[in-house]
Design a protein that fits this description.
- The structure holds two protein chains of two kinds.
- Chain A is of the alpha/beta class.
- Chain A has one domain: Histidine kinase-like ATPase, C-terminal domain (Heat Shock Protein 90, 2-Layer Sandwich), CATH 3.30.565.10.
- In chain A, 32% of the residues lie in helices and 21% in strands.
- In chain B, the strands form two sheets. A three-stranded parallel beta sheet of chain B has the order 1-3-5, with helices on one face. Chain B has a two-stranded parallel ribbon with strand order 2-4.
- Chain B is globular and about 40 Å long.
- The N and C termini of chain B lie far apart (31 Å).
- The chains are: A alpha/beta, B alpha/beta.
- At the A-B interface, helix 5, helix 6, helix 10 and strand 13 of A face strand 2, helix 1, strand 4, helix 2 and strand 5 of B.
């Protein structure tokens, strides 16, 4: 080692349960993506969820130096990480052999979403359909609800992030719930919203998440409509996701740079400051028992948001055949 | 003119980029030529709201609310009807606010 070169080391000690509650309280001291070495100690991990794995995946991806991952000591969580593709996606060598088998009805392997692939027609649709069919194979109504939420989530990350990300999902039979998570280590929601001149002066991640979860908020513009700057979408994706969670007693989290938005069912959402993540993680949990026909849920949300007594409410001129 | 949105049965359309592409290359040019367009949702089980807004609301904002008279929505299930209705109402609300 040349004289004067300092080897700096960051360390992430993972707890037994690598889940949302870990992320809410996590503080990785002195993490610097430019540091020479990062050690991720997963030796105590016994249980992991899509949220925890996606976040950790992107944290490791964002590190530019050498990464040393210590795998779980226990064989079961180790095999789960192998099967879900955690090690393969990060090019970490497996030290135990395992036999891959059908994941039907349980989880979708971690899938890297490359931003070169996304503009291609059908890629996002195929991915979402595959995930929904794996985690809810026998319930078309639940599948539709998952597809809708996942579509809004993926679109949002794609439009805001300008970076590749990772997605994974798991069905929990014991609680009848699905958890879907997507994470990237891109520029965050605040920077995405600032593409819209209306939000140019935005300088706080907490405020950005407050705005992003309100109706009619978009940072994405259709460049071909310049100079009129028609928005690429209506900016209701995260708002609709939030409202569906509210009406179906689910759970919804957005981590974006220094802010964490959290909604548990119909309880008013909270936004807290966090200190550990660069990028965006969006997570939702849906309970199969509370997910009725999606059109009824959407209809309720639409009616709540109509301006009263305007001609915009008139839909008799829509020609359905 | 007929625009068929899915070949594969049970499709769920989510990628807004694909909606934008159909809007730009087929829907808007046809409206500008004064043609009636039958939008065929056969094989489509649903879309994300972002997809529908990029497709319908974007078209109505680009071509004007009156262009709704050129659009016919075929083979919509209850979910698709709800999504189309939301998109049209949003476009009307925005047009009223802009006026």
């Amino acid at each position: 080692m040349p004289n004067g070169m300092k080897i700096l080391t960051s360390r992430i000690d993972c707890p037994k349960e690598l889940d949302i509650s870990w992320l809410e309280n996590l503080s990785i001291k002195n993490f610097d993506p430019e540091e020479t070495s990062l050690t991720v100690d997963m030796s105590n991990v016994m249980f992991s969820t899509p949220a925890g794995l996606c976040m950790l995946h992107e944290k490791i991806k964002s590190h530019n130096g050498i990464t040393n991952v210590i795998p779980p000591k226990n064989a079961n969580p180790y095999r789960y990480l192998q099967r879900i593709g955690f090690f393969d996606n990060l090019n970490i060598a497996n030290t135990q052999d395992f036999v891959s088998h059908d994941a039907s009805g349980r989880f979708k392997e971690m899938t890297v979403i490359s931003n070169e692939l996304l503009p291609r027609s059908g890629v996002v649709d195929d991915l979402c359909e595959e995930i929904a069919s794996v985690i809810a194979p026998d319930d078309p109504d639940f599948q539709t609800c998952i597809l809708f939420c996942m579509g809004e989530m993926v679109n949002n990350v794609v439009q805001h992030s300008h970076s590749a990300g990772v997605i994974t999902a798991q069905f929990y039979q014991a609680t009848n719930e699905v958890e879907v998570a997507i994470a990237d280590h891109g520029r965050g929601i605040k920077a995405g919203l600032k593409d819209n001149p209306k939000f140019y002066s935005l300088n706080c991640d907490i405020e950005a998440l407050e705005i992003a979860t309100q109706p009619d908020t978009s940072g994405a513009f259709d460049s071909s409509t310049e100079p009129y700057r028609i928005e690429l979408n209506s900016g209701n994706g995260l708002y609709y996701l939030k409202k569906i969670i509210e009406k179906t007693f689910g759970e919804f989290h957005i981590f974006s740079n220094s802010a964490h938005y959290f909604q548990d069912g119909s309880i008013s959402p909270e936004i807290k400051e966090i200190t550990f993540f660069e990028g965006t993680l969006i997570v939702f949990r849906l309970n199969r028992g509370y997910t009725y026909k999606l059109e009824e849920v959407l209809g309720d949300i639409r009616k709540e948001n109509l301006d009263t007594q305007t001609i915009a409410n008139d839909t008799t001129d829509i020609q359905f055949e | 003119m007929n625009i068929s949105l899915a070949d594969k049965a049970d499709s769920f359309l989510t990628g807004s980029e694909s909606a934008l592409q159909i809007r730009k290359t087929q829907l808007v040019p046809a409206i500008k030529n004064g043609k009636t367009i039958e939008i065929d949702f056969s094989n489509v089980r649903g879309t994300s709201q972002s997809w529908m807004n990029a497709f319908i609301m974007g078209t109505l904002l680009e071509c004007g609310i009156d262009s709704l008279k050129y659009l016919k929505f075929k083979h919509c299930n209850p979910l698709l009807k709800e999504l189309v209705t939301f998109s049209v109402q949003k476009a009307k609300q925005r047009s009223l606010k802009a006026a």
